[in-house]
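Assess this:
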Amino acid sequence: MNAENLILCLFYSDEEKRVFDKIKFYESLSNESKLEIRTLSLRFLGPLLLAEGMVREKEWTLNRVEATLSSFKKITESEIIQSFTCLNSSQFFKGIMTNLFAIIGSPYTEDVNLIYHKLINYIHPSIIQGIIVNESINRNEFNFTEFIDAELTRGINLIEQSVGSARKMYWKKKINYYCIGIIERIQSEDLKESYLYTFDYDDPLKDKYLSDIPSYYVMAILPDYYENRIIETLRNFNKNNILPSISLIDLSYQDKKVLYLEEFLIIKEKKRSYGLILINSEVESKNLHDQTFYKQKLRLILDKNKNFEETIIEINSYINPFEKWDLKSPDSLSKIQTVLDKKK
């Protein structure tokens, strides 16, 4: 594989929230670019972002971020990256959460599950077990920083061995999700708008499902946040002609699971995206549907120009498609925190 086509970064945050990184640098990158890439770690590390963004004391974890990549210009073979994925493993050590976070940019459509299971079932547990063994045997002679650096090097090599594996079909139990919010994003060179549609702020359903997500504020900022981080990463690796679009964000807390699914369309260099905030509700409802249903509805809005309001009512008849929460400014996001995220 041509190293110029590959982005691999691995970040580990310990129980003191210190962040250690291992990054597969291109030989052609300047020292300035390498320094800029190193500054990505704290901004990119999903669990730390969630901890800062949430008022509640629940340990929500970010499991996966996937992006589709597009190009507007003719590019050379060495500039092509087909998939961009961020994977996180959150595990307890000494009673406190530690995180192992991987960024993978590749010219292939990766088997993300294969890499993810290697991350959570082998690499991360090996780090924790190695710390326990070394601290008990070597005590004061144990050099923690050197150990972590060696483990991250080993981990990134293990991940790299799996890069290039074609995505396989895995049997999974069919899950029906309940939609509690829609995010609309419109972007062009001179325009950027984003809105959230959900239940009315005084609707009892809003309070009922508020505990099933980190917060509406967190869900509102995640798509833009990670899309911007991916853009920044690609540019630092000299991938300037590639436009990322968030396709999936996977969050969990104990038995609660949140999926954010997004579809987009670009017409005349104007990008329109619609994303759905989905929860695995146990409540029987006519508004429960599988992922395929939701993706089809989004594509109908984008490709067939189907009426937005009618489609949202079909997705969930309790969501108000005529009132929207502005997501553009800090003041409007603050209003979501103080009004929408507040229980009656």
The mean pLDDT is 87. The first strand starts at residue 7 and ends at 13. DSSP finds ten helices and twelve strands in the chain. The chain has two domains: 3-162, 177-340.
